[in-house]
TrEMBL record:
Cofactor annotation comment: Binds 1 FMN per subunit.
UniProt source species: Paenibacillus pasadenensis
Nitroreductase domain location: 7-165
Pfam hit, one: Nitroreductase
Xref: CDD domains: YdjA-like
Annotated residues for binding of FMN: 10-12, 39, 134-136
EC top class named in words: oxidoreductase
Membrane-spanning intervals of the chain: none
Protein name as annotated: Putative NAD(P)H nitroreductase
Record keywords, A-Z: Flavoprotein, FMN, NAD, NADP, Oxidoreductase
Cofactor: FMN
Domain of life: Bacteria
GO molecular function: oxidoreductase activity
Length: 185
């Protein structure tokens, strides 16, 4: 696939086929994705991959948090179960973790570099017929989730990538043409 076609055609995918994604392929794609620009070569990232039974750790944490947040006592169990199932419907989840540098400028550079790794991965996966969505739900930073997947002090989760073979590909949300956004000096 041409790069142009790959960039324009990739979509964030939310619904996946009930089909395993080869963990070795994910590891290989991440190994290419980390060839991202990275000022100071801090390489601040690491990846926690949950597939198969491994997903239960995230799903259990998600259920516990949603049960806690549900205000109606009669609905707690049902709400928790709903979110548990939502997590388990993703064939594979990559939690992208970044070391939090104490200096703001380095931290910002590191976040930007980590975002490029994520997008590299997204494009490489798309080329293989695999979709993903970068999720930044608020509970990424909750202790329950951090403990469930082993995020250490001084690290932050940049996102959970829900990965799988697409069941449905959403329609593209059109972009403002860059020609309208350029100021020529
Ligand atoms: C930093 C970042 C965070 C995102 N967080 C979420 C999220 O929490 N939930 C979600 O459904 N999509 C999330 N997305 C995906 C965007 O909603 C999606 O990229 C956008 O709607 C454009 O669609 P496309 O990726 O199919 O072109 C996120 C994307 C980025 C770059």
């Amino acid at each position: 696939m041409e790069l142009n076609e790959l960039i324009r055609g990739r979509r964030s995918v939310h619904v996946f086929e009930d089909r395993e994604v080869d963990p070795q392929l994910v590891s290989d794609l991440l190994d290419t994705a980390v060839w991202a620009p990275n000022h100071r070569m801090t390489q601040p990232w690491r990846f926690i991959v949950a597939a198969g039974e491994g997903r239960r750790k995230i799903a259990d944490a998600c259920r516990a948090m949603n049960e806690r947040w549900e205000r109606d006592p009669a609905k707690k169990q049902e709400t928790g179960q709903k979110y548990y199932r939502k997590i388990m419907s993703n064939p594979l989840i990559v939690t992208v973790v970044m070391k939090e540098n104490p200096y703001l400028q380095v931290r910002e550079e590191d976040y930007a570099a980590t975002a490029t790794v994520i997008h590299n991965f997204s494009l490489l996966a798309w080329e293989q017929g695999i979709g993903m969505v970068w999720e930044t739900y608020e509970w990424l930073h909750e202790d329950v989730f951090r403990e469930a997947v082993g995020i250490r002090p001084g690290e932050r989760a940049v996102g959970n990538l829900h990965v799988g073979y697409p069941k449905a590909i959403p329609k593209a949300e059109l972009r403002i043409p860059a020609a309208q956004l350029i100021t020529w000096l």
